[in-house]
Amino acid sequence: MALALYEPGLGYYANDTAKFGLMPSSGSDFVTAPEMSPVFGQLLAAQVAEALQRTHTREVWEFGAGTGALALQVLDELAALGVRPDRYTIVDLSGTLRARQQLRLVKYEGLVHWADALPERLEGVVIGNEVLDAMPVQLLVRKAGVWHERGVVLQPDGSLGWEDRPTQLRPPMEIEGEHDYLTEIHLQGEAFIRTLGERMARGAAFFIDYGFGESEYFHPQRHMGTLVCHRLHKVDDDPLAEVGLKDITAHVNFTGTAVAAQEAGFEVLGYTSQAHFLINCGLGPKLDALAQGPRAMATKLMMEHEMGELFKVIGLAKGVEPWDAMGFVRGDRTHRL
To answer: What are the CA-CA distances from residue 335 to residues 47, 274, 327 (Å)?
Structure first.
């Protein structure tokens, strides 16, 4: 999965395909919330502004910034709110996406910087929209009661195939039943959260992604896992086909994210659906001010059958006194992690 997504010049996020957009006619493969409506970034900016004030920090960090749409929305709204961070740093492994981001953010030249990796120490507010789901996962499959790791092998004819090998790796909880069961574990994504926590001296972090808490993620009926691919706004379940030309993604286990965060010294500020988070941050007045077309697009951010329920938001803080962050004042589901 790491090779397919990030191999220089060949991986999906390392080539120059369109990736992000509303329609397949643009050559894009999927749409993200910032591409759907600028309201998303404007409301996230309200939470960022509050977090900057509460943590007494002056920097914003964004991971996996895509086309730069979210960064532009956040910076524009922060300016409207009278908040100007000292620095906005984007951490992105894709050189082609970085070039697109630089073009989009030219008005903030001097304020926006790019980095390839985390610094040894940081203070500030971190945001990441659909970044955890793009971190490589490992596949585990239970067959006849025995757990195997599913990996990729080269077939005699030169094609790629699956091979299952017995393993000591296990999901983080027991899976009820004796039926065959395929799932994912998120060792790299959780290691990223630990590293972020270890290096953050003071600040907060907000991650938005599709996923579930542990009990729902590893439900006995979810026996085919969550790993899927996206190309031209279509979904398939074969990551061994068209390698490098389509996105490979898995849902996030937010319980694992929260546990990794706590192990690294974070406090969990809250966990809720994207719909609740955006409503708490002021979605209602934003919708009232929009014309019919933009309002319809923005409404998709909260609708249950669109992004509102499947996408979740988790808030973390370290080195500061936890506070009742605005995004979680109603509808907090931390108790369900």
So the answer is: 21, 17, 16
